[in-house]
Automatic annotation (TrEMBL), chain A:
InterPro entries: BCAA_transport, Leu-bd, Peripla_BP_I, TAT_signal
Protein's UniProt name: ABC transporter substrate-binding protein
Domain Leucine-binding protein: 35-373
Keyword annotations: Amino-acid transport, Signal, Transport
Family: Belongs to the leucine-binding protein family.
UniProtKB/TrEMBL annotation, chain B:
Subcellular location: Cell membrane
Family matches, as InterPro entries: ABC_transp_permease (IPR001851), BCAA_transport_permease (IPR052157)
Protein name (database record): Branched-chain amino acid ABC transporter permease
Species of the source: Paracoccus broussonetiae
Family classification: Belongs to the binding-protein-dependent transport system permease family. LivHM subfamily.
Major location category of this protein: membrane
Length: 416, 292
């Protein structure tokens, strides 16, 4: 018998319906002992896609480890993963995960714009959204949501940490900066923070440009920077933009000191030892030598053959934090977990020196951050260790709250 | 406004046009001859970049510049023989779907094999450094890139306009039926043209790999710009595409020079819009009966 077109179509329809039924089944059978279902959304294509891939690898690792150890209170963890693509698609997919698959929480995201639409969807449905990669201060300020918590550090934390480094090196007072910012929420927000920082510390602007997110050719900006002769080139770029910039900065032979407020180690790795320069803030990196951090790097490297990127750390941590919350609150009730997260006694081991905790007024996870400095290209031991990391910031005698001083995202109110 | 910087930006924009050219010319050629809009053209560009990374340890950069385009061209011939050839005589919508699917398959295959994170690839030592023209600074590598692009495009022009092969291809673009009536089979020419066009995309991939991030989705980024160039230039016109590529670069440079860099990408679409309003067939588009 041959499959005619119509038969084949009917066959596809039927198998599609069966597949949909199978996917929907867990939510119908959902009982107290059934698996705990989480949704994971993050960009897997586009200029943030490379980071998203690390996020997905880390989530898989975290779920695998938790389930291998017997799950959370005996319940297995199940995760539905999708590409969030853009703000519109992200919110549609979040809605579908909540309505159809009845996920207890959504984890992930990198783009600040998509994080906002997911947060709005989650807030309406009263489900948790754990943001693992979006940095915009506004998400912790005027756009904050009761059900949204941020494992990823916010922009102002990077500005303050990188700013400390620049102040110590005399690159602020009376100095002229050239700013390049990504032309979307994240970059605008960082640019505002950088302007405020310059104003507070007596620096000036030598020039500023907004860069479209899909731009790959930076040659025209190299000409502008060279013409402006700044004391520092400060980048508020994201994803593959940073890599393009680093490669072409080297290509045009510019030697002005380089730094930035937005950064991911994947951008440095992609630029390579030869092109990577400057000092950059970083939420976590694979050189941090705490016991937990070393174990994570080891497990990740064993599974994937390369060290984890900081985005991998973010999504791995988010799953751990949720697992801890489910254990400690003995359930998946969002209201109970929110109370638990907001409780000042709740601490999390962030693989760093000090424990982290959520700032109750913005739901930002307060934690130490780091600065990494590029090694001269001849000194890199391998393709991953092309930088050295600072110790934890702020200094041990300073409270973690100093990192969120002077945030520019407006005031957060959970009532609305 | 600093006059020198202004002129530098215009010149830089003009030079940028050459990168678009390598991709756009092949896109235009495949469409003109076979009527296939090759949405996978950018994916072959990405294959070129990844192949360069894969074989450079054995061949060096300059070896890769020669070998990779040949490998990608061979892939192009295979693609034409296996896939394109079934879609020449049907509604173009089908070939759009085909090449769209092919682009996704290639992108995912690259992701699957090389991972999603961008890979590092550097400018070879011999081409590092800058060239100064008075006060205008330019990268030595980009000069090399432009020279190779000009040679490749010039070679293509000679092939199309000064050889028997080119005469048949040009006749095929205008009227494949008469060519068939004369007893000339277009099939081998279609394969060769697809090979050359896709090989050029591969060449562009090798050449761009040292200066842009090499990641699986890199093809999509160039494809859009290349399409705009082809549309502005007009189908079937060699010089139309060349002119359009330089014009797109120039407009981009101009928009940045007047201080609106965030408009630089939008500007090329505006340019396309204006050109299509004034000249629906593109700047130098020929009247091709079967596409009217």
């Amino acid at each position: 018998m041959s499959l005619s077109g119509i038969d084949r179509r009917r066959f596809l329809l039927t198998s599609g319906a069966l597949a949909a039924g199978a996917l929907g089944a867990p939510s119908i059978l959902r009982a107290q002992d059934g698996p705990i279902v989480l949704g994971h959304l993050t960009p897997r294509t586009g200029f943030l896609g490379p980071l998203g891939e690390y996020a997905v690898m880390a989530v898989d690792l975290a779920v695998e480890e938790i389930n291998a150890a017997g799950g959370i209170d005996g319940r297995q963890l199940q995760i539905l993963k999708e590409d969030s693509v853009n703000p519109q698609t992200a919110s549609t997919k979040a809605e579908r995960m909540i309505e159809r698959d009845n996920v207890m929480a959504i984890v992930g995201e990198i783009s600040s714009a998509s994080a906002l639409t997911i947060a709005q969807t989650a807030e309406r449905a009263k489900r948790l959204f754990i943001n693992t990669g979006a940095n915009s201060d506004t998400l912790r300020g005027s756009d904050c949501k009761r059900h949204m918590f941020h494992v990823e550090t916010q922009n102002v934390m990077y500005v303050n940490a990188e700013g400390q480094h620049l102040l110590q090196n005399g690159l602020v007072e009376g100095k002229r900066w050239y700013l390049l910012s990504a032309d979307y929420a994240f970059g605008h927000d960082l640019s505002k923070g950088a302007h405020a920082f310059l104003g507070r510390h007596g620096g000036e602007l030598a020039g500023e440009d907004l860069i479209p997110t899909d731009a790959t050719d930076f040659s025209s900006f190299m000409l502008k920077i060279r013409d402006a002769k700044p004391d520092l080139v400060a980048l508020n770029l994201a994803g593959t933009q940073i890599t393009s910039f680093l490669k072409q900065y080297g290509e045009f032979g510019l030697e002005f000191p380089l730094g930035g407020f937005g950064f991911d180690t994947a951008s440095a790795w992609a630029a390579g030892a030869e092109n990577f320069r400057g000092t950059w803030p970083c939420v976590w990196n694979h050189q941090i030598q705490t016991e937990k951090s070393r174990a994570f790097v080891k497990a990740f490297t064993a599974k994937y053959g390369k060290p984890p990127e900081n985005q991998a750390w973010g999504d791995y941590m988010a799953i751990q934090i949720l697992a801890q919350a489910i254990r400690d609150t003995k359930g998946t009730d969002p209201a109970a977990i929110i109370d638990y997260f907001e409780d000042p006694a709740t601490k999390f081991d962030m693989m760093k020196t000090r424990d982290g905790y959520f700032h109750p007024e913005s739901h930002q996870l307060l934690q130490e951050i780091y600065a990494i400095t590029a090694l001269p290209s001849g000194e890199a031991a391998n393709q991953w260790d092309i930088f050295t990391t600072s110790g934890p910031l702020p200094q041990p005698d300073q409270p973690l709250e100093t990192l969120i001083a002077d945030a520019v995202g407006g005031t957060c109110s959970f009532s609305s | 406004m600093n006059m020198f910087l202004f002129l530098s930006q215009l010149l830089n924009g003009l030079l940028d046009g050459f990168y678009y050219l390598l991709i756009a010319i092949g896109l235009s050629l495949i469409f003109s001859l076979g009527g296939i809009v090759n949405l996978a053209h950018g994916a072959f560009f990405a294959i070129g970049a990844y192949l360069a990374i894969a074989i450079t340890p054995y061949t060096g950069f300059f070896g890769a510049v020669i070998i990779v385009p040949l490998l990608v061209a061979a892939l192009g011939v295979v693609t034409e023989r296996l896939l394109f050839t079934r879609f020449y005589r049907v509604d173009p919508l089908y070939s759009l779907l085909l090449t769209f699917g092919l682009a996704m398959v290639i992108e995912q295959a690259l992701r699957w094999h090389f991972g999603s994170a961008p890979l590092a690839y550097n400018i070879p030592g011999a081409l590092r450094g800058q060239v100064f023209l008075g006060d205008f600074i330019y990268s030595r590598y980009r000069i090399f890139l432009i020279v190779v692009a000009v040679l490749a495009v010039g070679g293509l022009w000679l092939l199309l306009n000064r050889t028997a092969f080119g005469r048949i291809v040009r006749a095929g673009i205008q009227n494949p039926d008469i060519l068939a009536a004369m007893g000339i089979s277009l099939r081998p020419y279609l394969s060769t043209v697809a090979g050359i066009a896709i090989g050029l995309a591969g060449l562009a991939g090798v050449l761009m790999a040292p200066i842009v991030p090499v990641h699986p989705a890199m093809g999509g980024e160039v494809l859009t710009a290349a399409f705009v160039v082809v549309v502005i230039g007009g189908l079937g016109s060699f010089w139309g595409v060349v002119l359009a590529a330089l014009l797109v670069g120039l407009v981009k440079g101009l928009v940045i020079a007047i201080g609106l860099p965030s408009w630089s990408l939008a500007a090329i679409y505006l340019l396309m819009f204006v050109v299509l309003l004034l000249r629906p067939r593109g700047l130098m588009g020929e009247r091709i009966l079967r596409f009217e």
